[in-house]
Amino acid sequence: MRYLPLTQSDRDAMLSVIGAASIDDLFVDVPPAARLDGPVHDLPNHASELAVERHMTALARQNVVAGEVPFFLGAGAYRHHVPASVDHLIQRGEFLTAYTPYQPEIAQGTLQMLFEFQTQVARLLGTDVANASMYDGSTACWEAIGMARRITKKAKAILSSGLHPHYVSVAKTMAKYTGDLLDTAVPQLTAETDLDRLIAAIDDETSCVVVQYPDILGRIADLRPLADACHAKKALLIAVVTEPVALGALTSPGEMDADIVVGEGQSLGVGLQFGGPYVGLFGCKDKYVRQMPGRLCGETVDANGKRGFVLTLSTREQHIRREKATSNICTNSGLCALAFSIHMTLLGEKGLRGLAMLNHRKAVAAADRLAQVPGVSVVNTGFFNEFTLTLPVEARPVVRTLADRGILAGVSLGRLYPGEADLANGLVVAVTETTTGEDVETLAAALQEVLA
Amino acid sequence: MSINQSGWRPAMTAAGDAAPSLTFTGNRALMLEEALIFEIGDSETTGVDLADTLVGEDRLAGLARATPIGLPGLSEPETVRHYTRLSRQNYAIDLGLFPLGSCTMKHNPRLNEKVARLPGFADVHPLAPVDTVQGALGVINELAVWLIKLTGMHGVAMSPKAGAHGELCGILCIKAALEKRGEGHRKVILVPESAHGTNPATAAFAGFTVEDIPATPDGRVDTDALKARLGPDVAAVMITNPNTCGLFERDLKAISDAVHAAGGYVYCDGANFNAIVGRVRPGDLGVDAMHINLHKTFSTPHGGGGPGSGPVVLSKALSPFGPLPFTARMADGHIQLIEEETAGDDHPDTFGRMTAFHGQMGMFTRALTYILSHGADGLKQVAEDAVLNANYVLRSLEDVLDAPFAGAGPCMHEALFSDANLADGFSTLDVAKGLIDEGFHPMTVYFPLVVHGAMLVEPTETESKAALDQFIGALRSVAERAKAGDPALKSAPHFAPRARLDETLAARKPVLVWKERPAA
């Protein structure tokens, strides 16, 4: 076995030092009835690197690769170009094969990176502070709802109808057990978001309002009136950003007085990866930092007065507080945070803002082109790089038909909201810097044919 | 002439005759200081070239960004150098033995990395039509089958994002099963004192009351105390096996039988499954739910703190309650994705969705690659070599360090020592910091809580005998210094990129983001 360095003579010598006659003597505490007499039945034995690579490559070939076809899927996961140096750097063994930085003297690389990441994230989200990452956007979202309950000591959370339906599902799952009361709704195919509904629903029992920006249909709304309405009732505004590149072009939620801003960081550095691992972003106002879940990295000095970094405020965390912790989260998404941070460093202010405007203008052009297809209209008046089309027929079969033609046309609302007849004709289309004009033409032409 | 392995030549003096105490840069040869990106980057520099932005109107709903974000940029060469320099301030399994008990720092095979980056896995969207992602669903399904067979369980939930998320998944399955039985009043979860902190945190999150179960003097769960506490208010027990003292819970089957007889469920924390994989199936011990840390047992990289991946294997009793989505292979070989829409008929009791998409796909490809490389025979050898290495460390050091449970028999995959033999004023922390100067990452310290000044050493199966011997020599040397009261140990590490860091200051005056300092 290529990954096991011990030779049989090593094993014999070590058993002799231990004073055991055989390896079985070391498993003596396993009750006889539970001991297997050989390798687990009905499973193959070891295989060469070549054989395993062939097997896995054959599986990989059964998938349609996003980069090889006209591709318009978004709805919480976006395809962006990731510079080659990002993947090279995260594969350095000192990053890839390090553990959580519990021994800071020999983990300053990870710790300094996390400090830089926290600062980048806080600035992007417009919050005072940010943590060292969560699993993904959807889990960051329900952690934020729990955090609002702890801060306000109230349990009613109002979820915007524009919040990603899978994020709503996750929150519903957790609410069954935490006692949070969720006010939810499905979106309507209108240019306006449900801001008015949210403001009207806020009452004295409300812990928080959760709003996605841009929302699941790609719409954008000014959050300031909502923030004011929340604060008037001592509720918190939680903003959810599933496409962080948008904040290169848009006013950040923190600037609009959101109290907690969470997000999915996958767009930058991480890649699609069929849904994971991704990286949850989590920022908030300074005054709430001690109720924040997850790890935090902080600056300090060493015994010689040199600047250094450590994990800090761990009295919020499970390994210290056990059942009184702010969250049970332990391992988070460090390597994806690194990829995010490197990509952000490569972009910088100029690059991120340029990338954002490139996305936006391409999306505007695509929306205008697709609106020319007979029977197709664009729901949104405002959007960033994603917008919703209404088709004259149900969108889901159209998506399947186009997939058969080698076009991944977008995410149908029938997939996201099965059973909601009013949404069945909706198609969410994402356009990024990776989308070419030719891709848009191909989609428009195919859509016209299929709808004809 | 033999090679002087320490690299030291007899003619050299300890400090070096004329070594300057300071350098202009603060660097010391290959030990390079590195400023923050906020100090070396600026808002005009970028490391990417973008296509020209199209000319046109904006439709940003009047919300176009009006203020700078405040992001520094670096060119590509500066970026590569910044992160390369940072990386060199980290210890890593690629550099040497990383004996963190319970964390399982084993070699990360590079084939796994190569496979995970195949475009057919890395560049696939989670909401792509199911017919276009049959290979990705195939990976999830194939890994699921392996996990079920290796554990002897009935089903598996693949979507949990890490171990603690898996614990939550298992506990939510238990809660849903109890509610289905009309026994939602069972509110107590019993957790041994030696458990990971995530266990009580998870139980409390799900609305349960946590009660501690004491340990016996030989480091195992006090079975009598546990059985005595069982009753109509107990929902479940959470037991780690092998436990955090590195010992197999001999009575687990008897405990499971008693818990089941009392109407409860058995959750097993599978963080240490690597010690028994291929040799023992938790399903044979009566376990109802167990998470598997793919980043421990199945070698997916820890990445400086994640991503993890925590699939949960489930008994027949709990499988109906597992989360969405999951995969099902049809008779014609087609793999179906069971989501909210399709769950209604076949899976009505699911407790719901835990995460937006399908779980940690990038970890599934790596773990499956690792599993196929080892096969059933190789995985059995993994457990055996892991246990052999840990016992070798235990028996090689029990004369110099107190090993509280060594007298009772062999350990499993990790060796536990206490601070009982150290000189007055010397602590486990001093031993750990001394090991840093010897070029090793320290063991897990002060955990489990049931042993004073615990030092938990897990070498894993991917260490050679030579590497173990060098580590044993280093730890022996440091332990002897701690027993002799060597004052230099109190200020260790001396040769690391940083001396001991002031954690109290960090917590008292938290500085969590970089801010521009006013000019001095």
From TrEMBL, chain A:
The entry's keywords: Oxidoreductase
Catalytic activity line of the entry: N(6)-[(R)-lipoyl]-L-lysyl-[glycine-cleavage complex H protein] + glycine + H(+) = N(6)-[(R)-S(8)-aminomethyldihydrolipoyl]-L-lysyl-[glycine-cleavage complex H protein] + CO2
Domain of life: Bacteria
Molecular-function GO term, any one: glycine dehydrogenase (decarboxylating) activity
Keyword Oxidoreductase (UniProt): yes
Residue stretches making up the Glycine cleavage system P-protein N-terminal domain: 1-446
A matching Pfam family: GDC-P
E.C. number: 1.4.4.2
Enzyme category, top tier: oxidoreductase
Record InterPro entries: GcvPA (IPR023010), GDC-P_N (IPR049315), GDC_P (IPR020581), PyrdxlP-dep_Trfase (IPR015424), PyrdxlP-dep_Trfase_major (IPR015421), PyrdxlP-dep_Trfase_small (IPR015422)
Function: The glycine cleavage system catalyzes the degradation of glycine. The P protein binds the alpha-amino group of glycine through its pyridoxal phosphate cofactor; CO(2) is released and the remaining methylamine moiety is then transferred to the lipoamide cofactor of the H protein.
Family classification: Belongs to the GcvP family. N-terminal subunit subfamily.
NCBIfam families with a match to the protein in the record: PRK00451.1
Self-association state and partner proteins as the record states: The glycine cleavage system is composed of four proteins: P, T, L and H. In this organism, the P 'protein' is a heterodimer of two subunits.
Name by which UniProt lists this protein: Probable glycine dehydrogenase (decarboxylating) subunit 1
Organism of this sequence: Sphingomonas aurea
Gene from which the chain derives: gcvPA
TrEMBL record, chain B:
Taxonomic path: Bacteria, Pseudomonadati, Pseudomonadota, Alphaproteobacteria, Sphingomonadales
MF GO annotations: glycine dehydrogenase (decarboxylating) activity
Annotated Glycine dehydrogenase C-terminal domain residues: 384-482
Domain of life: Bacteria
Pfam families from the UniProt entry: Aminotran_5, GcvP2_C
Reactions catalysed, as given in the entry: N(6)-[(R)-lipoyl]-L-lysyl-[glycine-cleavage complex H protein] + glycine + H(+) = N(6)-[(R)-S(8)-aminomethyldihydrolipoyl]-L-lysyl-[glycine-cleavage complex H protein] + CO2
EC number: 1.4.4.2
Keywords associated with the record: Oxidoreductase, Pyridoxal phosphate
Organism: Sphingomonas aurea
Main function: The glycine cleavage system catalyzes the degradation of glycine. The P protein binds the alpha-amino group of glycine through its pyridoxal phosphate cofactor; CO(2) is released and the remaining methylamine moiety is then transferred to the lipoamide cofactor of the H protein.
The protein's name in its UniProt record: glycine dehydrogenase (aminomethyl-transferring)
Keyword Ribonucleoprotein listed: no
Ranges of residues in domain Aminotransferase class V: 187-304
